[in-house]
Amino acid sequence: MVKRVMSLLTAIGAVVAMLVFLPATSASAATCAPAWNASSVYTGGGTASYNGHNWLAKWWTQNERPGASDVWADQGVCGSGGGGTEEPDPSGFVVSEAQFNQMFPNRNSFYTYKGLTAALSAYPGFANTGSDTVKKQEAAAFLANVSHETGGLVHIVEQDTSNYPHYCDTNQPYGCPAGQAAYYGRGPIQLSWNFNYKAAGDALGIDLLGNPWLVEQDAAVAWKTGLWYWNTQSGPGTMTPHNAMVNGAGFGETIRSINGSIECNGGNPGQVQSRVNTYQSFVQILGTTPGSNLSC
């Protein structure tokens, strides 16, 4: 009997030893849950991923960011197995593909994340100037204005076709070689008018005056035109949107640079607030603060 007990204990010890020396499963290999969405409702036991971690909801929650509220329990690092991981993109862009998808859940498939990151080389200072906070704020500001202009990256071209013939300034020496109705709004900031197509094309080294349709056919070109305006044009404002964000003028000045008095100074406070709300949502997704001077 004693020998049988000893044999059993020896067998158990061997199993324990095997378990001890089995290679541990890395927490980083865990599959990420679907990315956290500020507008989604999570009940107790619900899961979401945020900033490269999986999180477990302890009770009902909505718009309470994981890591900033005790309603969420950190379940550890998640790896490349799911869509919610927040690992930096190889391009160095401060917005990951998962965060981009979270910002634009209903976007048109034309507006690809790869198209955006491919366009970044045209303006390397964009979302890459100043502190990490400023970089994220600028990226959020650009994408919030883009979201407003395109209905959440749904519209590639201007929807009111009756406006199309109006965007040809025949007083320009180069005229409208693609046709009088060819220079309607396209892309993430709805590039319009023949002189804007000429200026953007010259800056980017692309013949957009002769072939404005490229902006609705090539995602990288479309994103580049948006970045061209953001980084080089003050529009009806006093500074470029890029300078507004990196020099501390605030999100409100980016609105002024895009639409001026049409929205600012009481022109359309509802539209201004819509842009501000989107910006605040996007900086939350990026895990930073919105800064001051949000309105115009």
Name some characteristics of this structure:
signal; disordered N terminus; two-stranded antiparallel ribbon; 296 residues; three-stranded antiparallel sheet; plant defense; elongated; Glyco_hydro_19; 10 helices; Seminal Fluid Protein  PDC-109 (Domain B); 6% strand; Lysozyme; mainly alpha; hydrolase
Short description:
By secondary structure, the protein is mostly helical. It is built from 10 helices and 5 strands; from the N terminus they run αβββββααααααααα.
Please describe what this structure looks like.
By secondary structure, the chain is mainly α. It has two domains: 27-77, Carbohydrate-binding module superfamily 5/12 (Seminal Fluid Protein  PDC-109 (Domain B)), CATH 2.10.10; 88-288, Orthogonal Bundle (Lysozyme), CATH 1.10.530. Helix content is 39%, strand content 6%. The chain has ten helices and five strands, in the order αβββββααααααααα. It has helices spanning 2-21, 97-103, 113-119, 132-150, 194-204, 214-217, 219-232, 241-246, 251-259, 269-285; strands spanning 41-42, 47-50, 53-57, 61-62, 72-77. The strands form two sheets. The protein has a three-stranded antiparallel sheet with strand order 2-3-5, with no helix packed on it. A two-stranded antiparallel sheet has the order 1-4. Helix 3 crosses helix 7 and helix 4 (132-150) crosses helix 10. The radius of gyration is 25 Å and the shape is elongated.
Give average pLDDT, whole number: 85
Main-sheet strand order equals 2-3-5
Q: From the helix content, strand content and strand pairing, which structural class follows?
A: mainly alpha
Largest sheet: 3 strands, antiparallel
What is the CATH level 1 assignment of the largest domain? Mainly Alpha
InterPro entries: CBM5/12 (IPR003610), CBM_sf_5/12 (IPR036573), Glyco_hydro_19 (IPR016283), Glyco_hydro_19_cat (IPR000726), Lysozyme-like_dom_sf (IPR023346)
Organism: Streptomyces halstedii
Keywords: Disulfide bond, Hydrolase, Plant defense, Signal
Pfam families: CBM_5_12, Glyco_hydro_19
